[in-house]
Amino acid sequence: MKLRMVDPKTIKVPEVRVTARMDEETSQQFDESVKAIGIDEPLKCFEVEGELYLSDGLHRLAAALREKMDRVPVTVRPGTMVDVLANNLMAGHLRGKHPVSEMRRSIEALYKEFNIGIEDIQQKTGLTRDYIERLLLISELTPMLLEAVDEGRIGVGLAYALTRIKDPVRQEVTFNMILSNGWRGKRALEFVDEVLRSMALPVEEQPPPPPREVPGVKCQFCGEVHPPTELVSVVCCHPCQLTMLTAIAQARAEAGKEVP
């Protein structure tokens, strides 16, 4: 490993990678720190066929480019694109703030594009075998479900449970049933089990689908909960809304006074 001062514009960033996330306040503090003291912690790169590929430090690299710095400190090691991806996965995993979608794509690239076995991925990244296997299985879900995973609408646990349903149509139907009914956690996993049990039965013994729970909605004016079919949508301006709410509040107050 060598420490070099490198032109940040020459550093290449792999398309598939894991990047730690910062909230807006932390990002602003980070930028102010770079403006004040520069890049304090060296970026990490691998030299692959004469080119420098970033494995860790994308936020620092982006800040250096914004500040138009001529040189930044970089630790450089010889390696391959496998080393770049694996080291990036390990760094992202240790920081703990990364989208599951990026972890999934990086592991899938190592496994499918570079033919790296699960045990080797485990050794190079520090991830558990179970987590690696789950993410690889999740990568085989339908495109619609993968989009839901990548957008954070379903977590790894439910996504992994859905991989047990091998029929892609039933996968998506089951997911939409869970989503439309608002089932979460244990109830969502139980429904996947119910679907699997029903799929194992002969067609004539298939149970009817469970009744869909229709949630009640609270009326904005009276505050009582009603079925959606008993509600209407009223379009009004803010002054009229204020007048209506005031009238209802006054009526409630007067009704309360009349109670013996």
Q: What features would you describe in this structure?
A:
With 260 residues, the protein is α/β, with parallel strands linked by helices. Among the domains are: 1-100, Conserved hypothetical protein from pyrococcus furiosus pfu- 392566-001, ParB domain; 155-211. 52% of the residues lie in helices and 12% in strands. The chain is built from eleven helices and seven strands. The strands form two sheets. It has a five-stranded mixed beta sheet. Strands 6-7 form a two-stranded antiparallel sheet. A hairpin with a 6-residue loop joins strand 6 (217-218) and strand 7 (225-226).
Give me the Rg, rounded.
Answer: 27 Å
Structural class: alpha/beta
The proportion of strand residues reads: 5-15%
The first-level CATH class of the domain at 1-100 is given as Alpha Beta
Main sheet record:
5 strands, mixed
Extended strand count: 7
Strand line-up in the sheet with most strands = 1-5-3-4-2
- The string of secondary-structure elements, in order, is EEHEEHEHHHHHHHHEEH
The global form is flat
State the helical fraction. 40-55%
Low-pLDDT runs of 5+ residues are none
